[in-house]
UniProtKB/TrEMBL annotation:
GO MF annotations in UniProt: triphosphoric monoester hydrolase activity
SUPFAM superfamilies registered for this protein in UniProt: HD-domain/PDEase-like (SSF109604)
Domain HD: 82-208
Claim: Coiled coil is one of the keywords in the record: yes
Coiled-coil intervals: 221-262
NCBIfam families in UniProt: dGTP_triPase (TIGR01353), HDIG (TIGR00277)
UniProt cross-references to Pfam families, sorted A to Z: HD, HD_assoc
Name of this protein: DNTP triphosphohydrolase
Protein species of origin: Anaerosalibacter bizertensis
Amino acid sequence: MDKTNNFSKYSIKGIDLERRENKNICEWGVKHEVNSNKNKEETHRTDFRRQRDRILYTGGFRRLQDKTQVIAATKNGDHRTRLTHSLEVEQIAVSIADALGLNRDLVSAIALGHDVGHTPFGHAVERFLDDKLKDKGGFSHAVQSVRYLKKRKVRLSAEVWEGILKHDTDVYAGAYDKRQFDCGDYFPKEPGNLESQVVYWADKLAYLTHDFEDFYETEIYKNAKEYHNDLESELQDILANLITEEEKSKKIKEDIKKFETRDLIRNVLRNLIDESLKNINKLKVLKITLDPDVIKDETKYRIEKIEINKGIDNVRNEDEKRKIKKEAYQKGLIINFNEDYYNYYLGLRKILDDHYISSPEVQRSDAKAIKIVESLYDQFINNYKILPLNVQKEIKEKKYPRKRVVADYIASMTDRYAEEIFTNLNSIGSYYDY
């Protein structure tokens, strides 16, 4: 009996991988640029996968393992960090990309790079630095990620830069200022390609599911229930609506303890993929051309339509205008939920913001972080000679304002390192400890 050997006699070259992958990428996805003259030193990876790996081996990516996601480390060590968050974002993004026929290597690179410029201690420190640098262009972790990788001369394509930059609505909605870093080549005020949009939602969904787990499975939820009588019933209703299987949905309405996070992830992804596919198929009717700008043009049209319906031209308050722009960006993306599901998503997000992010436990963690970083920032600004020599050199060169250089240094810190420097500068310990 003959047995067919399915193994290739020769290893598969990168260029052949790109050709093979391109056959699986839909007409609206970003294709691999197959070029026999490029990357002659590389043999077994696609170009986007090489870029992903360059990000993976940066110090900034490794430092994510000791950067808080929402709340400081738990005693049993199973807390989320920026690193675990980035890995979860990649897993979700690749699953969506595979289902929609998009470029999985591109979304993987964007996902792993999207937070490499993030501050220690979570978004509280990002907001602090943004306030301190208002007169110097503000601070956005999305722009900072691009800035960090650019300063280290990490070679990435425009598609990866753009995806990292556009994973956050603040960049589109008005917070972006080129004084932090001139990202003009990557069109910060325009929506990105479909792969960028996939990572945008993968980031949001990773946040949603791990915030829910970290809330629901801790004392924070039990404490919140004592002071908010309707919390459990509100949560039951939203979760039941997010779970489309009738039998499981019914059980959740009867007893919230029957809920499992994997059901939430599965159903949320299913709705996002199904609705996104409908939106992508509509493009075939709207446009005959395969012009790469079709995706951006159509997304921009959808966003602007929502802004007009919200009466943005009549809004004078900048904060209100920014709120409308952020909502329009989120709802206008081609990669999206249907209307009902989107509202359920917002409902669950609001519960988590009100009862988890605003909980005393998280707020105390944020307050501690601000105390540490505010002290470091003020001391570094007032006496730059206590900074490492390479940071001092940047300040002396005056290429960037002192505030920006100090913000770069703080953003690069891990939680533990920031605490150690704070203790070193503020404790009465031995004079010889430095």
